[in-house]
Amino acid sequence: MERLLVTGGAGFIGANFVRMASQRYRVTVVDKLTYAGNRASLPEGIDFVEGDICERPLIDELVSATDAVVHFAAESHNDNSLRDPSAFVQTNLVGTFTLLEAVRAHGTRLHHVSTDEVFGDLALGGTDAFTETTPYNPSSPYSATKAGSDHLVRAWVRSFGVAATISNCSNNYGPYQHVEKFIPRQITNILCGQPAKLYGTGAQVRDWIHVDDHNAAVLAILERGRLGETYNIGADQPQRTNKQVVETICDIMGGDYIHVADRPGHDQRYTMDATKIRRELGWRPRYTDLRAGLEQTIAWYADNRWWWEAGKGDVEKQYAQRGQ
Ligand code: NAD
Ligand code: TDX
Q1: Is residue 42 part of a domain?
Q2: How far apart are CA 87 and CA 6, in angstroms?
Q3: Is the pTM of this model over 0.90?
Q4: How far apart are CA 215 and CA 41, in angstroms?
Q5: Which of 15, 94, 133, 290 is deepest in the core (most CB within 10 A)?
Q6: Annotated catalytic sites, by residue?
Q7: How many domains does the chain divide into?
Q8: How confident is the model at residue 195 (pLDDT cuts 50, 70, 90)?
């Protein structure tokens, strides 16, 4: 395997993946450059194609010229999916279908990147965790379309023998994450002299993982994973409420937070059991201290205002319309 086609490579996780994988592979990125895509996140020396994964002739041509596809492209923000789900259905379902038909036609290896949100949520206060066999029970239009895309991949493996793997990962943080998302929104609010904004009570629990740990796991699955298998990815962190995470950010940066309107249908708790990937592939997270990972991420946003400052105002205007 020498050549990789990375869909959604100009997005947060994709761009960090390209930075890691381009040290070992010849990488081509295909990305539509939606509001969430940014060419400036990509390193020099890779091939970039601006295009939509729903366009079959383009995807056929790119898939025919690669050894494997790593599929990150998606509409990824729950709050946006509550405002207008249509792009989520199009990109996450029709886009994944289009890719699957192309890899089926060309016999190409595919890794499909998915989320813990396909499993729904867990009750606050419990210690149970999602495993690879937890039944799917998605809550939002975003997670429903990701769940549907996972089912398509599984069906193409079983029905057509497509050489695919799937990973379901917990909440990522790190450099190049769009300022609409929780952690960069709070960091950049404080950098702009604004308070951090906590939805509702802030009692919800997310299972945070550094983006480089996620991407090292994706590479391990691509290189050594068993075809047809699904792997959960999570960093085995202690359970942390959103309020605790905001308090840590405020403590590091010297800022304040306020409570704002809650997200409708807000998932309460995500906790991942990543035993399978640890046991089968020997993968381990390297960022095990969230505070240290947040300090690194805060320093990145403070040093790279050019990367996020232009888009910040529009994002905050949209949140303000919803009382958030
Ligand atoms: P992102 O929104 O930052 O990036 C998505 C990228 O996909 C953007 O560059 C965008 O331009 C591109 N894109 C969107 N529609 C496209 C289309 N039709 N054709 C081509 N490109 C298109 O998302 P992210 O946070 O980097 O997430 C990447 C993947 O990882 C997604 O599949 C997401 O479901 C999954 N995931 C994310 C997290 C997380 O915490 N962010 C956790 C688990 C899984
Ligand atoms: O301003 C905010 N205040 C707040 O309290 C924002 C933007 C979010 N929140 C809360 C909502 C969630 O409980 O923080 C938590 C994290 O929110 P998001 O960053 O929007 O992430 P989440 O909805 O958990 O989904 C993320 O993880 C799984 C990614 O966006 C998905 O793409 C991934 O699949």
Answers
A1: yes
A2: 20
A3: yes
A4: 16
A5: 15
A6: 116-117, 142
A7: 1
A8: very high
